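Hello,

Following up on my earlier ticket. Below are the two sequence lines again, exactly as submitted.
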Amino acid sequence: MNTGFRATVSRYIPILDWGRRYDRSAFSDDALAALIVTIMLVPQSLAYALLAGLPAQMGIYASIVPIILYAIFGTSRALAVGPVAVVSLMTATAVGSIAQQGSAEYITAAITLAFLSGLFLLALGFLRLGFLANFLSHPVIAGFITASGILIATGQIKHLLGIQASGHTLPELVLHLFENMGDTNFATLAIGVSATAALFWIRNGLKPLLVSLGFDARLANVISKSGPVMVVAATTLIVWAFALDDQGVRTVGAVPQGLPPLTAPSFSADLWAGLFVSAILISVIGFVESVSVAQTLAAKKRQRIDPDQELIGLGMANIGGSFSGGYPVTGGFARSVVNFDARAATPAAGAFTALGLLMASLFLTPLLYYLPQATLAATIIVAVLSLIDLSILPRTWAYARADFAAVSLTILATLGLGVEIGVTAGVVLSILIHLYKTSRPHMAVVGQVPGTEHYRNVLRHEVITDPAILTVRVDESLYFANARYLEDRVYDMVASRPKVEHVILMCPAVNEIDMSALESLEAINERLGDIGVGFHLSEIKGPVMDRLRRSDFLQHLNGDVFLSQHQAVETLTEDKGFGHTA
Amino acid sequence: MNTGFRATVSRYIPILDWGRRYDRSAFSDDALAALIVTIMLVPQSLAYALLAGLPAQMGIYASIVPIILYAIFGTSRALAVGPVAVVSLMTATAVGSIAQQGSAEYITAAITLAFLSGLFLLALGFLRLGFLANFLSHPVIAGFITASGILIATGQIKHLLGIQASGHTLPELVLHLFENMGDTNFATLAIGVSATAALFWIRNGLKPLLVSLGFDARLANVISKSGPVMVVAATTLIVWAFALDDQGVRTVGAVPQGLPPLTAPSFSADLWAGLFVSAILISVIGFVESVSVAQTLAAKKRQRIDPDQELIGLGMANIGGSFSGGYPVTGGFARSVVNFDARAATPAAGAFTALGLLMASLFLTPLLYYLPQATLAATIIVAVLSLIDLSILPRTWAYARADFAAVSLTILATLGLGVEIGVTAGVVLSILIHLYKTSRPHMAVVGQVPGTEHYRNVLRHEVITDPAILTVRVDESLYFANARYLEDRVYDMVASRPKVEHVILMCPAVNEIDMSALESLEAINERLGDIGVGFHLSEIKGPVMDRLRRSDFLQHLNGDVFLSQHQAVETLTEDKGFGHTA
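Thanks for your patience. The regenerated structure is below:
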């Protein structure tokens, strides 16, 4: 095996790199981290599977093989892959539009969705297209996550009340809740509300209490992370002891015991067509969520992650999940932070977590029979409330109305029309706003800042100008969307300044001149030439100048091209035979 | 009526402005122009209606009312509105997918398409959204027009051969032509080929011949413009005289004689839904074609047109057409140039043309019975061949591969998949390419050009730099698509230069910093602060600075903001207590 080949293989399979240096200290760190994460993941995995409309055990299956594959192919040391709230909700939306919840087709569709999403992530990774995720702007992501959190929490209220309420949008959910509120099962409500309260208290109050009681901080941490398991155990025991399932408290029921099953995605063309757009959206959202978690955690340790390799890691995880009874997964924030806080040293921590979940799947599932769904709903509600952060609205309002518009639309569309339309609307609107802004660029008439060679906007600074020289700084790349606008503005400015003999287009902000803009520059050059006005360019950047040299524009230019604006003004002023004045 | 109200009314109804100053000299110019245009329009209007798959007389109807309405609401002095080749082809494509050619539904759909397209144009006009047309880049338009010309010319060959061949794409058309070539009617072929040859000769050779024979240039012009009418008359007479219609030469046949009929668009929701996208595409293409013709002609006379008002003019023209037996119209290049060359002084020339066409519709239609369709096909072929210009391919190849990619895709998609997919693909690809480019901006490390206060790329110029100061000029607005890329690049540059104490982000090309980019700048600031590197900004533009002041970023900035790059370097060098060296 030669070195070049080995380097290539190592790039795509990072385990070959860190695996070689693995030692006992890393092992004990990883194993402890895995224990903590496993304890946290069991109830959460069950809950998210129910959120996706799937049998509870699929949440555990979805964690096992994907975690191992991510450990082999991923680059983040701390990322924990598995079912997450937003992707589970998106799965429910996507699969729910194709099959009836509870049917075999529904399960097959979810497995196929994981497979398609994995294929798409792999394709993006091999084509090194990870940057595409950047088109989801921060405000759009923030708005989408917040709106999804609201949808998820609202969707769980029915489980706390023990009633029916379905829907993929907020109005539908709220309407159904009100319609069916009369059916509330009070035993369920009591369990649900107590579980929610207990989980909130465990999340915020247990660890400080334990520490104040003299527990070691790390132990206090383990105990408080296992709090949800205690709530699960307590409510399960209560249901069993008082036979509350006979009083209408819905429980998880029989869960098959054993290894994750060998499953396979469907290869039906119809199903693929029906899931295609959803698979793309889930992949992109999952990738963005995962990468931002991974980057945040990596930055804390001065490590770097490779987004394109992350695509491959997540892609393999999803494909692996689709063959082992799973549904779409990604790197989750909560579980990764736990992993990180528990000092996971390498991706092997993930593999040990998988082992722990395998044990749970083999031995613990019979104990889940009496686990009330209300407890799982409480787990989800407590988890997603931390996702909801409406502060993005005032922050964007204060900073930039365009961002505010994008984030508001994303939130409204997600709540009112569902997750898929919501995120798509956000992305499309932010791109449209950006294009609109670049289509009407800021243009400033500039003059010399006294005592310097620096030229700035005449409206904002005290500057020196010459009535015979009009310098226009155009603050945008020149391309098809603004080419005609540029023409119109230059003509207008020249028309209103009859003394002008030279027009200098100052181009420090022009990063591109495409064919359409070149034709507009030619038109401006010709028009100004006709009326005896010189047309000059200054501060054209290297790459743009290279481009212009490939056309014959510079030969036709009736003026000159100057390296700097100052040189342009000096030369044109000298040519006239007198100094320029204020 | 107060002045403000009158100004508003005049803005939307320009005739109130020029109509008041109308005099005898303008009248005689307009009337002569109208005569010439009418003579040219009769055969062309019939031909384009057949191209759209409609009865020949609809081409004339489509010119009458629309011309008058455009004269009232439009702003161009020379624009002649009516059926044009590309829009006729697009009409055939759109309506052909909904109804069978020759059926009453087909005609209703074409009329409804004109109505919808008119509504859409009006809406764009009132919302002042004319700039949207700028997103059709020059190369995309050029490619689309060329490909449409090829499609149209190929589609007419069947009429020259007297065979059947249908299809909306080049492969379909060519395949059908080869399949049915054996059915060629030789009488039709003889007429078709002679008419084509005659029209080519008239277009290029007749006027010079007449002038060399001593005719007055203007008269020679009128005669040569009426050449097509002579070809129409000659071939009609031949078919009649030799009873060639009995030998299989297809003719126009019975055309109703009379005023344009009163028609109405359908208000069927299904039909509207089926035509909606087509109406948008036809409106935009028609508008772009019309505006570029109008602007070209206006520029020659130092006049200006108002694109938003043009939308209203074209919108009224189409709505008017839909109530008078017409189909979608726009400003055509050939007829407008004729109008212009014939010295039309005001839009009234158009109204006189409408009068001429009305006369034709009232009195000439019986004469059209024996007019062979092959002659009309020849008229179309000669007209559209001037649209075909493949030189855009080598020009864009030489200048910019991105433009080349957009134009090639437009041509291939238009020829291979049809006009609607073709133009959409071109627009989408050019926007995607633009976004891709801005997502990975050019970034240059810069230094001082000796003896100046000007700073340029170290790789392209001999410049002075200081190892403790890294100045990075980022050549793009900072927004969501490139925010993460900026972070990565800055970290990489700092990591590879251990001596760096200050990073200056030089921002003359940064025209916007959106919320996502602000968060990235905050992250960079924090990360550099952690490793003891100062983070400074220079040459931030006014509007961007205003924006930054609305956030708390400047308070957290661990360095300073400098008006000019030179000032930044001077200050930071002085702080260190020694001069900066080469």
